[in-house]
Design goal:
2 domains, two-stranded antiparallel ribbon
Length: 195
């Protein structure tokens, strides 16, 4: 948590670290958190939208639709086949009483708060020795965006346009700034010099 009246920008979690974290959480019987990291990394959803998901929305489906809490806009998401298998495995282990239940409920039978999720993220950072400075729920959304951008290669600008639409940003320049791409590109300028 940041100090009162200060702002801390979440860093993005690198893709390979996110995938290792998902596997480690599953192996440690932390199925809810494994799903949460999966949904954030594969779908780029805000934590407020992830926390509102119910089992029936994600189990054995090829696509999900939801109305984003912040924007009120509809978002359609394709479910990656590997993620679909992971979702099934986690839900089988969680064995919910009803598929109409929220996925991310605490032992008190209430949906986790964003603050509680961020506390859990700090614990994960320590337990799994994650090499990320500011790890919070927003790190997953940035993980999704940065991975799409970097894997797009020569189509990076097209990827920014698509990400801008997925993130419901008003233009790609906001998405570029959001993902911290401009700074990284500027810093790479120093790498072209040599002896």
């Amino acid at each position: 948590m940041s100090a009162k009246f200060s702002t801390t920008t979440a860093d993005y979690l690198e893709w390979n670290l996110a995938m290792n974290l998902i596997r480690n959480l599953f192996d440690d019987d932390e199925y809810q958190m494994s799903l949460l990291i999966s949904f954030g990394s594969f779908w780029g959803l805000r934590i407020s939208d992830i926390l509102q998901l119910k089992y029936y929305q994600v189990l054995n489906v090829d696509e999900i639709s939801l109305i984003e809490k912040k924007t009120g806009k509809k978002r359609d998401i394709k479910v990656n086949p590997q993620l679909k298998r992971h979702i099934s495995a986690c839900i089988e282990k969680l064995n919910p009483r009803s598929l109409d239940d929220f996925i991310f409920k605490s032992q008190k039978n209430t949906v986790y708060s964003i603050q509680r999720i961020n506390v859990r993220f700090k614990e994960m950072k320590v337990k799994y020795n994650l090499t990320i400075k500011n790890f919070s729920s927003h790190s997953l959304r940035k993980c999704f965006g940065r991975t799409i951008f970097t894997r797009s290669g020569s189509n990076a600008e097209i990827a920014l346009v698509k990400l801008s639409q997925l993130f419901n940003h008003s233009n790609p320049a906001i998405t570029r700034r959001y993902l911290g791409i401009a700074k990284d590109e500027l810093m790479q300028t120093y790498d072209v010099l040599g002896f």
